Amino acid sequence: MGRTGGFVQSALSDRVDPEQPKYKVGGLLAWAIWMLGALCFGYAFFHRIAPSVMVSELMRDFAVGGAALGNLSALYFYSYAGMQLPIGIILDRFGARITLSVSLLLCAIGGLMFASAETIQIAYIGRLLVGVGSGVGFLGSLVLIGQWFPQSRFALLSGMTMTIAMLAAVGSQAPLSLLVDSIGWRDTIFYGSIAGIALMLMVGLVVRNTPDPEKLKRQDHISWGDFGRAVMKSFKIPQVWVTALIASTMSGFLLGFGALWGIPYMMTRYGIERPEAGLYVSATFLGWAFGAPISGWLTDHFQRRKSPMVIAAFLNLLVMSILFLGPDLPIYVSGMLIFSAGAIGAMMVNCYAYIREMTETRVHGAVMGLINGFTVSAGAVLQPLIGYILDRNWSGEMSGGARVYSMAAFDISMWAILVAGLIAFLSTFAMRETYCRPQV
């Protein structure tokens, strides 16, 4: 198989012309590259969230119910999650620049296929391609942060990357709802795919893999066999799997409620139209955008990982319980609770910093890929599960060719998210405090 750098050495490797000058770490170009990487992750969130504002149209045009629609949306998560470990090796072999560019092209192709699909099967294939392409965004951004910025900024910039993605998600709620009402869901996805091609060109022109193109010649290479053994050793560490479980279950509200079922839930609960419902549900992503960088700063400032996670998981469960199980609330109060659940849930971003401290350097990327894959699996599991529960409790009512679910059905289905929140809270007690220092 030859010799190559270990996966996390992708954060140190370079695939660009060695004649290029050395750039400044943390300089102007570094910030431009970070922004483009963050926009790639934001673009992935556009595709992740888009079906949530098209629920009725998709059920009508493809003649499917909630479970099938949940599967259509979740196919993105299946392919996304399944690609996380392979993406690490691909990033190491080809670098972030070309990998992000190809991923954006796959997103665009999948989006165009989805927009033109006449059958649910073609739509499935399109969503699978979109998920494969989207899988590079966050991990590629983390690799670029590791290359272009000091280690002390990793948690903060990871949170800021999440903020960019959440702002893109906000744009995929109320504003996108208005666009769907204006030009239809097919044209909306079509133009979104064209935007992805434009972003691909910008990435190809601006992004560089490392500020020091000579670093590849100086780094210590390891064989594929040594790298594989290091990965397997890391996967035997219980904390790796505890962290993966926490990351996925704390993301349940964002990916199960915010990314698909929140808008029809709010429409049914308060009798409002889709754009207004999208506005309130977008508070999930605004909260996440607000909470992610703050949570990264807090844990770094107080030099603690475990205790903030325990507190955040408890508060997350409490807020969701009030929202879903509490008495009838004014809509603005529900909006505040939705924002709070997003802001508190964003603490899971620290799972990426935590796992870097629990594992050896050369496999950081691989284990971060595992954590990211588990995180996205929350959507893959919860979205169709909620749809299945809704179908099981459907009264038979139809409107405009789409199923209409009662508030009682939604109340039952939201228990799936609450159970995930409970698992997250209990799992945080199994964390081992690192005091923000490497443990190996």
Features:
440 residues, mainly alpha, disordered N terminus, 21 helices
Description:
The relative contact order is 0.17. The chain is built from 21 helices and four strands. With 440 residues, the chain is an all-alpha fold. It has a single domain, classed as Growth Hormone, Chain: A, CATH 1.20.1250. The two termini are 28 Å apart. A hairpin with a 2-residue loop joins β3 and β4. The chain has a two-stranded antiparallel ribbon. It has a two-stranded antiparallel sheet with strand order 3-4. The N terminus is likely disordered.
**Name of the CATH architecture:** Up-down Bundle
**What is the C-alpha radius of gyration, as a whole number of Å?**
21 Å
* Total beta strand runs: 4
Looking at the chains present, what oligomeric state does this protein adopt?
Answer: single chain
Q: What's the N-to-C terminus distance?
A: 28 Å
Main beta sheet, described? 2 strands, antiparallel
Identify the strand order in the major beta sheet.
Answer: 1-2
CATH fold-level name: Growth Hormone, Chain: A
The count of helical stretches stands at: 21
Quote the average pLDDT: 85
Which percent bin holds the helix content?
A: over 70%
Instruction: Give the topology string: H per helix, E per strand.
Output: EHHHHHHHHHHEHHHHHHHHHEEHH
Low-confidence stretches: 1-21, 216-220
Residue share in β-strands: under 5%
* Domains, number: 1
For this structure, what is the CATH class?
A: Mainly Alpha
The CATH homologous superfamily is called MFS general substrate transporter like domains
